[in-house]
Amino acid sequence: SSMLLIVNKIALQILNTPALLLAAQCAFAAIVLYITDKLKGSGQLQRLQSAELDRFFVVVAAFVCTLFANMKALQYVNVDSIICVRMTAPISLSILDYVYLGRDLPSMRSVLALVGVTISLSSFLTFQSHGFAALAWISFWYFGMLFESVYVKHVVTVSGLSTVGQSFYQNILSDIPFLSIALATGETKQLK
């Protein structure tokens, strides 16, 4: 995933169209999932039922917000900063998993390791100079990522869809908001 951050950073520097890049990535992922399922004949792409659609509305909204905020943060900061912030997520997620999903807390040894990682990475970020917009997008992305991680874990446990089906619908349904964002922000005009 660090390589994807680097590729996205380069693509943003060339095209400067975060929503269109994300729409293309989601469309590509959905097409590959669809073709692979058809070629294998596995039938893992079930029809999306209305009960699943309600849950997927929140999943897609969180996915779109998180990915878009990540792309916007990449426009303002270097990849190292994003990686550092992301590496502090396990300590937050372990607490959220305990509170909302009933999972066990990590052992004391793991907690100390997570705290050590968080302190060292936080000190690295302290010496980076980022403006308000960068910090806002990083914060929006970070909290969106935490919410999405916990909520998607919940949806996966109650969903009747296969993993392939969940991935397909998450990607294909995300194209609508990404294309809407691209139109609303004028990204489509930048490609002309």
What is the string of SSEs from the N terminus onward?
HHHHHHHHH
Straight-line distance between termini = 30 Å
Runs with pLDDT <50, length 5+? Answer: none
Number of helices: 9
Question: Structural class, please?
Answer: mainly alpha
What portion of the residues fall into strands of 2 or more residues? under 5%
| Gyration radius from CA atoms, angstroms | 18 Å
Approximately how much helix is present in the residues?
over 70%
Total count of strands: 0
* Sheet of most strands: none
What's the average pLDDT?
Answer: 89
What layout of secondary structure does this protein have?
Layout: H1 2-15, H2 18-40, H3 50-76, H4 79-87, H5 89-101, H6 108-126, H7 132-158, H8 163-184, H9 187-190
Notes on the protein architecture:
With 192 residues, the protein is mainly alpha-helical. The relative contact order is 0.19. Helices cover 82% and strands 0% of the residues.
Task: Offer a few descriptive terms.
192 residues; mainly alpha; 9 helices
Give a summary of the structure in a few sentences.
This protein is mainly α. It is 82% helix and 0% strand. The protein is built from 9 helices and no strands.
